[in-house]
Amino acid sequence: MIVSWPVLFIFLLQYTRNSLGTFLRVETGHQNIAIDGRDTYYGHYTKIHFHNVTCINSIDIHCLKELTGAEEIDLLYSECQKGHWKVAHYTNSKHHFRLKEPIHALRLLISSRKELSVIDAQVTSCTYPPAPPSECHRATRNHNHRHGKTGSILRAVDPYSRIEEEMEAEVEAGAKALARGLNPDPETSRSRRVKRSIEDITMKETNNVRTLSGDQVITEDTVVPHRSQLNIAPGSRLKFQKNVGLVIYGSLNLMGSSSQPVTMEAVNKNERWRGIEFRNASTSSLTHVNISGADVAVSVKGGASPDMDHVVADGNTYGIKISDMDPTTTTHLKSVVSVNNEKTGIEYLGKV
Question: Is the full-model pTM beyond 0.70?
Fold first, then answer.
């Protein structure tokens, strides 16, 4: 790894809004970057060291040549003094990078295959403190301490990508088992990291459509696979166990009415359920629905965002969070109310 200190460029690195610390130092260089599931590449980086672990919502990156938004830039971070790099996912408009989830970082690295010549980075910090990073005491795979040598690799994990792969594998395993007329093997349908069991509702009925009605207690994640549809009848009341929710790859229709809304809540008022999560989903609709007690009442992480009509998100950690959706689709929100949530009410992290 070769580290160079720029002479011609002055780094005006600074915080904005409620910073939790100050920059300790900044360094630039180039190194092989290996991220989970991607080819290793030779990256040019700017690395920011903080005095303390800091919560970050967004970062503005200004370069000698203005960013267009089309550049391939990786944002990596670590809560630790050494190793343990992770990928931060973002949406950006030119120089402004909005993180899809807040991160806690002791070090932040801006990397690209092409030299960016960063001259200014402004970090917008969060207000809530981090949990102690227990993993910092574990050994890392990157132990190349040969100073002045090239060829060392900076390795980073992508937790979001791993969860996606595990969920896809669970859905596929469940669908194959059901196609054979068997119950999914609990050992193959449960990932080593995702401990919750999964109920795959791929139906044998025509067109893979299922309708739920009445009072239901949901004890495990319910996954609606691609080309399948789940309808929830008017007046239905669904109660979810802790960390359990709906994961939608297909289509979900909550068909409440003004006199018979669909209610979704936690079994235990003191424990959060997961919420409704859309992942590369097809067209869905939420009509006359009351959602409470969830980590995220409605989250969109790909595909088409559902149309929402008379939806109330009340008393969740997050209300409605659209972090990624198919740019060729649109979403319609009518009479949507998001109140008494701990953090954000309605949040859209995509491009306008």
Answer: no
